[in-house]
Design a protein that fits this description.
Elements (H helix, E strand, L loop, with lengths): L7 H7 L9 H9 L5 H4 L2 H11 L3 H9 L5 H16 L5 H33 L1 H25 L2 H29 L5 H22 L11 H18 L7 H7 L3 H12 L5 H17 L7 H4 L1 H36 L1 H6 L3 H27 L1 H22 L20 H20 L4 H9 L2 H33 L1
Helix pairs in contact: 4-9, 4-11, 5-9, 5-10, 7-8, 7-9, 7-22, 8-9, 8-11, 9-10, 9-21, 9-22, 10-18, 12-13, 12-14, 16-18, 16-19, 16-20, 16-21, 16-22, 18-19, 18-20, 19-20
Length: about 475
């Protein structure tokens, strides 16, 4: 009896990519690999690409959040001396504090515009290439911050921080998209969490390098910002050897052959790329059947509006949780709460900041299995609930602390015992643990998972703008509250 011809749908799958022929044995092998364990999906190319993306996106973002903390007194001295040399007078105490708070927050003012730019550049040049080009912006801002001391222009420092905010705002839109699109479904959460891990590590690294034994000195603080040049250099060396997003290549560019080649590099020989290509084709067909979406459609059409509201709410809840005030002013909080220890060691409060972010860094690794097991919604709400309780108790216990200029801002309980300060410091560490278990990473994961390739860049830019505006209001409000209450 003659052998039965292969089924029609099998032949279509074999010719899926540009009509290329695929041997039946190859297709059968790919069908058997559908249920590969997660360990087989973690290839060297995937890890290399993930590191190359986050080292120039998440790492500088976290570094910029924490780099202003430890050397704040030294940079303020530079602001004062620069103003004196050029205008003949110093800042008043209140004016210096206000200008410092604005300088810290202007990083977040440039970021929303960067989010809009990130949406455009990701569509135009691709995910990987966009990350490379954004280094030009970050390098420009970094050089302005590191060279301003020699030129004695404090305004140059603030301008450089705005430019860095613009670049990091764009990269925080592009990088999560790239990570989500190169990762297999089974480990997409873990790969996506690498962005937040790099953010926390960047903040930790800035805290360590900002201590007085390193660059936290009068002449050494400009070198702190030169580390951003190192991150940009590492990314520029690594990313050109990494594959572009396969989903972007097929759905946005229609290049099936290049998509297959990059997907094989990312998945390895055991993975079933045929099935994944089929999913891309289905998504591409659905996207072509839908009309092009305008910005207004994201607020009118229900299927786009609901996930956008969710993404924006998640981003805003992260920023308004108070974590940015913790990043920007934790050294001042520890300095006020642990006066005896700081009196014996001027750098003690900075060591406490290092310990705080070291805790956050290691707990963020625990968040990978925690988020996958508990779920996005439950882990986010669990973290926010714990942070709220800790914040309320700490705000009550530390309400008798004084500001930097010695004004009495004690509107809480008077003559609080020393043990209450130690309890407050402990609660700050518990606070950062709750943040690391959920709210730190979920907002970055959720947006690429809620939208298709054709709509995710615009949605991510809108959610990013909301996130950065919340970031701006948090540390700025923290600084102004002292002036208002006092």
């Amino acid at each position: 009896m003659a052998p039965r011809p292969p089924k029609e749908n099998s032949e279509e799958r074999e010719r899926l990519v540009n009509g290329s022929e695929r041997k039946p044995s190859e297709f059968s092998q790919s069908r058997k690999s559908e249920n590969l364990p997660a360990s087989d999906l973690v290839t060297l190319v995937l890890l290399f690409s993930t590191f190359g993306a986050v080292v120039g996106a998440g790492l500088p973002m976290g570094y910029n959040n924490g780099v202003m903390n430890a050397p704040s007194d030294k940079i303020k001295e530079f602001f004062n001396e620069s103003k004196k040399s050029r205008y003949g007078k110093y800042f008043t105490t209140d004016a210096l504090n206000v200008y410092w708070d604005l300088t810290v927050s202007t990083y977040c003012l440039g970021a929303p515009f960067g989010c809009l730019f990130g949406s455009w550049i990701a569509k135009t040049f691709g995910r990987r290439n966009s990350l490379l080009y954004l280094n030009i912006i970050v390098v420009s801002g970094t050089l302005m911050q590191s060279c301003c001391q020699k030129l004695k222009w404090y305004e140059m420092f603030t301008t450089g921080r705005i430019i860095n905010g613009f670049g990091n705002g764009a990269s925080c839109v592009v990088c999560p998209m790239y990570l989500s699109e190169i990762a297999p479904k089974q480990i997409r959460g873990a790969i996506g969490l690498s962005f937040q891990i790099s953010v926390v590590f960047g903040t930790l690294l800035a805290s360590i390098l900002g201590c007085q034994f390193c660059f936290g000195t009068t002449n050494g603080w400009p070198q702190l910002f030169n580390m951003l040049l190192v991150f940009a250099l590492i990314q520029c060396v690594i990313l050109p050897f990494c594959p572009e997003s396969p989903r972007y290549l097929l759905i946005e560019k229609g290049n099936a052959a290049e998509c297959e080649r990059n997907l094989r590099r990312l998945r390895g020989s055991k993975a079933n790329i045929v099935r994944e290509m089929e999913e891309y084709e289905e998504e591409n067909a659905k996207q072509k059947a839908e009309p092009r979406r305008s910005l207004l459609d994201y607020f009118i059409i229900k299927s786009l509006r609901r996930p956008l509201i969710l993404a924006c709410a998640m981003a805003l809840s992260q920023q308004l949780s108070g974590i940015n005030s913790m990043a920007a002013f934790s050294a001042s909080i520890f300095k006020s709460a642990l006066k005896t220890q700081v009196a014996n060691n001027d750098d003690f409060n900075n060591y406490m900041v290092v310990a705080l972010w070291t805790t956050s860094f290691f707990v963020t690794f625990l968040a990978v299995p925690f988020v996958d097991k508990v779920g996005r919604k439950a882990s986010h709400l669990f973290g926010l609930g714990g942070m709220s309780v800790c914040s309320l108790i700490v705000a009550f216990l530390l309400s008798n602390l004084s500001t930097q200029d010695g004004q009495d801002c004690s509107y809480g309980i008077r003559n609080i015992p020393d043990w209450a300060n130690y309890l407050s410091v402990t609660l700050l560490f518990i606070y950062i643990i709750f943040f690391s278990l959920g709210p730190s990473s979920i907002p970055w994961l959720i947006t690429p998972e809620l939208f298709t390739v054709g709509t995710v860049s615009t949605a991510a830019s809108i959610a990013g703008i909301v996130s950065w505006l919340g970031n701006f209001s948090s540390p700025d409000g923290f600084g102004y509250s002292g002036l208002v209450c006092c």
